[in-house]
Amino acid sequence: MEHHMTEIPTLELKGGSAIPMIGYGTGSALMKPKEDNKISAERVEQIKAAIKVGFTHLDGAEAYNTERELGIAIKESGLPREKLFVTTKTLGFAPISQALDASLEKLQLDYVDLYLLHIPWIESYQPLGKAWEAMEAAKAAGKAKAIGVSNFLIPHITKILESCAAAPEVNQLEYSLYLQRAELHGFCRQHGIAVEGYAPLSPCTVASGGPADPLLKSLAKKYAVDEAAICMRWCLGNNVAIVTTTLQEERMRDSLRITKFQLTPQETEELSRVGAEKHFRKYFGDRFENGDRS
Fold it and tell me: What is the pTM of this model?
């Protein structure tokens, strides 16, 4: 398979890894129902297309039920393993070591570059501290180059920090102009935890029509891109890596083209200011009170 290689900026993780700041997600539109055990050739081709256009950071999870497709796409892409940055996640309901072994088998890999505890709401199954010990053991065993969490708030991370040998290296969470999570972002930065954002396009898709619209349109015109590119570039300007998903190859290319321009610091700040005028959360709304911006 012919590959187009794009120079993608990276975020250095405190454990020594470097995560490409633009990742292709295999959940969302690619996600399969839990009971669907058939391999989807269509999803394999979509992931292969993402690799072909230049994505090297591939984001999976046991909950997406697409790890087998991701593994086949990686194998058929022909790219050397070391050229890829592969993430997967566990919900934490089963023993971590068993969950990771199951994921590695589906992915046809010996290790993942990043392994995340997908949600913090697991304490009826096991304490967060105990789950994190198992994450640390997975890294020590060489099955995960880096470990982190996803959707964790300050109280959840604090529980881990109280007893951990090593803090999470990444917190992957919903992040956009309309969900800036300034306090949580600052807390992660203070503790050396890189932030990775999903659903960065909400302000120009499901939450369009908000206060950022005029500025997004004018900046899109200035840089000859669309509003989605401005939303993603704003994330990178705040040192937040992003995961995005699309089924269209041209949209995949568009996502990688955000490496070709930069917003000025003033434009990034102005977007943050107008974005803060609206609050929108796409996922896990049942876990938060209305207006809770954490």
Answer: 0.96
